[in-house]
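Each field is set out as follows.
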Amino acid sequence: MEKIKAWAKNLKRQTFVLYLAYKDNRVPWYAKLFIIGVVSYAFSPIDLIPDFIPILGFLDEVIILPLGIMFALKMIPQEVIANCETEANRMMENEKPRNWLVGILIILLWSLLILWMAKEGYHLLNEGSF
C-alpha cells in the first residue's frame, strides 16, 4: 500500500511540475499546448473513462495520465524540469496552486462539449437517423 501512495504522490508532484513548466518561457509552444491538455485532464473532475466502470474506470489514472505526463516531460528542457521540481516540492509541502481562470476555462470547455453533443443528439433524433 505504501508503494501505491508513493506512486500517487509522485504523479501529483509531476503534475505540479508540468503546471509550473507551462509558465516558463523556455518551454516551446507545442509543449505548452500539450501540457495544458495533460494538466487540465489531471485536475478535471470529469474522466475520459468514468471511475464507476469496473477496471476500465481507473485506466486513465493508471495508464493514460502517466503516459501524458511522461510525454510532456520529454518535451521540456531539463533545466526547466529541475527548477520546476524544486518549486513543486515546496508547493506540495505548503500550498496547492489556485488558478481560477484555468478552472473556469476547463468548466467552460466541458460545458461546450456537452452542449455540442446534446445538440448533435437532438438533430439525430429529429432526423430519424438514430
Residues 2-98 form one domain.
